[in-house]
Amino acid sequence: MKLTEAINKRTSIRKFKDKKVKFGDVLEAIDAALKTPLAGNISTLKFIIITDPDTKEKIAEYADQLWLADADTLVVVCSEMGQIERMYKERGHDYAKQQVGAAIQNFLLCITEIGLASCWVGAYLDHEIKNLLRIPGEIVVEAILPVGHPDEKPKPKKKVSLEHAIYWDKWKQNKKPTLTKDPATR
After folding, report:
1. Is the Cα dihedral 15, 19, 20, 26 positive or negative?
2. How far is CA 118 from CA 111, 165, 173, 184, in A?
3. How would you write the pLDDT of the chain (186 residues) with one tens digit per residue?
4. Where exactly are the structural domains of the chain?
């Protein structure tokens, strides 16, 4: 599958078949996540893989999204901010957020390419998740990513069109620059 195909095919799935996911597929997606650009080559990323049914049930409750327990595997994405904040001070937090977003996108696209499904879940009771999984206080829980075989095919959601998302040279300037035949002369 080409990258653009995975981008266009990826969607949030909240209903999963009762079918096991290959552990290697989850590791492949995490490996793809780890290949994200990193500020100063400092990785803040940590992943907790959850397959225990009781733990999945509790996480689903703490997220108030009971469907999470139906996924074969949950991946909890965390950031360890210490080193990046020491290096970049207040900007370190921003850089860590940027790289975790890029990592999650890599993960989701890889899962799509493999033929599995997921959903980026960012709403949950942080303190309860941290207690349940014994995550230290300084570690930030960034997202919960359920992984499973899709049992639904949602209609594609309308996304913003290119012409409504870009400006030329200045904010809110919609007039395209005149291009010559030879881009080198521009």
Report:
1. negative
2. 7, 26, 37, 44
3. 788 888 888 999 999 999 999 999 999 999 999 999 999 999 999 999 999 999 999 999 999 999 999 999 999 999 999 899 999 999 999 999 999 999 999 999 999 999 999 999 999 999 999 999 999 999 999 999 999 999 998 887 888 888 888 888 888 888 777 666 665 555
4. 3-154
Q: How far apart are CA 168 and CA 146, in angstroms?
A: 39
Task: Kindly state the DSSP code that residue 56 receives in the 8-state scheme.
Answer: H
Question: Are the C-beta atoms of residues 148 and 11 closer than 8 Å to each other?
Answer: no
Class of domain 3-154: alpha beta
**pTM (2 d.p.):** 0.89
Residue 66 to residues 32, 49, 151: CA-CA distances in angstroms? 28, 18, 16
